[in-house]
Structures are given as structure tokens and as C-alpha cells.
Amino acid sequence: MINSSIKHSLFSWLLLASHFAIADEGRVVDEFTVKANINAVWDAFTTSAGLQSWVAPLADIELKVGGKWRANYNLNGTLGDESTVVNTILSYDPMRMLSIKATGFPAGFAYEEAARETWSIFYFNPISATETQITIVGLGYTDSEQSKQMRSFFKPANEFSMAQLKQALEQQERPQESEQK
């Protein structure tokens, strides 16, 4: 049985939807708005400190095509051990888009075969100076039983992850708003 910390750490590559909106069988899309400026959102996704604020306590990123986004929820672990999730950066357009693919899975992950076929694209759109819309597109899903089970497995983890992101970003914004008054 995969423990809940692995479930939450795997979200980083499968962060897809609090309510799955399937446009077609291989695509899952979600949109949400955070009360944070585009710079804070971009930093949350593309810096080690940003990832540590909402993804996992042990996280790092090398922002370049082919670079790695690693996360580990095991506080007694280390990045690179058997409980680390590794994503490879496929592409990015600064402040606009980031795409990743899971390429390393924790020991015992039941959906590795299905997960190897998927990738995620994060689109960032500033709505105002203090709000950003994030659109997450998950691609590569199939109608295989394992792919369907994987989507069901991650739904609660994705909801948790999006709430963590919002909380981390909105807490960062509050001190800045107070300073401006």
C-alpha cells in the first residue's frame, strides 16, 4: 500500500484538477485563480524555495529544458532516495508556461506504466496585479484501466495540492499588501 505522503508528493507531476473536466479521453484540464501576482506564482513553480513552500519540504528544481524538478515528502529522506519523485522539464516560456513529465517514481508506485505516458502543462495568466489564473492541462491519458485508476487515485491529492499552493501564495501576498498601506 502506498502511504499518503507518497500520494501527496506525486501530485507535482499530476497536479491536474480539483474537478476533472475531460475535454477528450487523453486530456484533463483545470483552471483556478490565486490571489498572487504572476512573479510570485512563477517563483512558486520554478524555484527550489517556491516548491518547498507548497509541494514538499524536500524539493529542488533546475529550470532548464531537460532539468529536473524533484520532490520528496519523507522528512527523514533525501532528494534522490527511493521515495523521490522526479519530473523532467520539457519546455518553458518564462512567466507564461511550464511543461513537465514524470520520469522517476517512488518505490512501490502502482501506476508507473500509465504515468510514463502522461505529461502536464501549466499556463500562467495574470488577471490583475494581484491575481493569476493557472490552467493545468494533463495529457497522455488513455482508456486503460490503470490510467483510469490513476486519475481516481490522484483526485484527492490534487485537491490538497492546489489548496496548499493557494495558501502558500496568498500568505506571501498578505505581508506585501500590509507594507503598501
Explained architecture:
With 181 residues, this protein is an alpha+beta fold. The chain has one domain: 2-Layer Sandwich (Alpha-D-Glucose-1,6-Bisphosphate, Chain A, domain 4). 37% of the residues lie in helices and 30% in strands. The chain is built from five helices and eight strands, in the order αββααββββαββα. Strands 1-2-8-7-6-5-4-3 form an eight-stranded antiparallel beta sheet. β1 (21-24) and β2 (27-34) form a beta hairpin. α1 crosses α5 (145-180) and α2 (38-46) packs across α3. The radius of gyration is 16 Å and the shape is globular. It starts with a helix and ends with a helix. Mean pLDDT is 84; it is low at 6-23.
Look at the structure and give the mean pLDDT. 84
In spatial order, strands of the major sheet run 1-2-8-7-6-5-4-3
Terminal CA distance: 51 Å
Element order: H for helix, E for strand: HEEHHEEEEHEEH
- Dominant shape: globular
Low-confidence stretches: 6-23
CATH third-level topology: Alpha-D-Glucose-1,6-Bisphosphate, Chain A, domain 4
Q: Going by CATH, what is the homologous superfamily?
A: START domain
Count of discrete domains = 1
How would you sum up this structure in a few lines?
This protein is α+β, with helices and mostly antiparallel strands. It has helices at 4-14, 38-46, 48-54, 112-115, 145-180; strands at 21-24, 27-34, 58-61, 68-72, 85-93, 97-104, 119-126, 132-139.
Based on the model shown, name its key terms.
single chain, 181 residues, alpha+beta, Alpha-D-Glucose-1,6-Bisphosphate, Chain A, domain 4, eight-stranded antiparallel beta sheet, 5 helices, 30% strand, globular
